[in-house]
Amino acid sequence: MVVGYKKDETLTPNQKLIAGVVSGVTTRFITQPLDVVKVRTQLQAQDKGLTWLGLSWRILKEEGLATFWHGHSLGQLHSIVSVASQFHAYEISTKFVENYASQYTSPQFKKVLLFMCGIFAGCASATLVSPIEVIRVRQMVGKAQYGGVIQGAREVYRGGGILAFYEGLTASLMQMGPQVGITFAVFRYVQPLVMDYVAYLEDAGQTEAEKKAAETKQLLISSSVAGSTAGFVSKTATYPFDLAKRRLQIASHKPDPNVKTPTMTQKLVKCRSLMSCLVDMVRKDGFTGLYTGWVVTIFKAQVTSVIIFTTYEMVCYAMRD
Prior knowledge:
With about 325 residues, the protein is mainly alpha-helical.
């Protein structure tokens, strides 16, 4: 059962919203340490010979285990709002396409409309979570300065006013729109293929009861493979905008001299505009500069996509039963 609206669906939009929330919370809890390492890799001016595993060890040695969970509370809120809004916006928009727009369009153009539904879901989500994300990213690089939600919001506002909460929004829209569109499109295409193939391999000699019992395993395998594929393709295609977004989100950050700043976050790479950010990356490190931190980002994206889609599908499956 693929994500998106289906005419024979038995779940209500609210039930699917619950599934989106559960998948978001689960995913954030598991991937939070990877997110901290990813953000540090993208923002810190560091030795090029230092791998993300080496960076992880340095964080553990110099700042302690708790550092990997800085920004986790906001991360959970971010996940709930981000994932739930993505799935909900996608459900609403695909329902419109299936019920109305498809009557006046060709099957080929319908695929384009479904891709646009993913872009719409990504943009809606990016706009909603921008203030949360700005505070969360700054907590990851300076927890003592940005503290809890209230203290973090106060520090962001003091540094750049209300617009500081939307630093990097343009890059975020250019990243999240296509990324979510590609993610859902690839997932919708790959999951049924894998599920049919797995069912075909196991079909011989099975009774109806055995086939029913095998559905959960088939759904788990197909969702994992499709989620992994979707995460790799979408994140790689849009990664330069993700990197620029992070550097834009700390544009107005100014270290507080009264607060101890970790040595590893004293020299951060900042940007003031999207275009200058991309140009500076290429000018300094060539084309590969656009993919600084790509390895840990892809690893995190793989883990995230597998967990988020698999959890979503399994929760929906459980509620249907």
